[in-house]
Design a protein that fits this description.
- The protein has 81 residues and is an alpha+beta fold.
- It has a domain of 56 residues.
- 38% of the residues lie in helices and 15% in strands.
- The chain is built from two helices and two strands; from the N terminus they run H-E-E-H.
- The termini are far apart.
Length: 81
């Protein structure tokens, strides 16, 4: 439990201190359908962007059949290099 609390504290400090900067490269954003919004990313993306919606929420899109969809789409972009 102590370790988890230390991780929580480190994440809280990182969130407080991090100042995101605009990014001009290509961005591929995978969003959960329950929150089909860019959550503020569009204000930081100055280059080309593409968004894919995965069924579910932030947690369920990483489970069972949905993670297969995410993996296939991600693999497509990783293999383009």
């Amino acid at each position: 439990m102590r370790y988890l609390f230390q991780v929580f504290q480190a994440n809280r400090i990182a969130i407080t201190n991090y100042q995101p900067q605009p990014y001009s490269g290509k961005v591929v954003l995978f969003c959960a359908s329950s929150t089909a919004e860019d959550r503020g990313w569009s204000s930081l993306i100055t280059g080309e962007s593409e968004t894919h919606t995965i069924l579910g929420d932030h947690y369920t899109m990483m489970r069972s059949s949905q993670v297969q969809v995410l993996a296939q789409q991600l693999e497509t972009y990783l293999n383009q290099k």
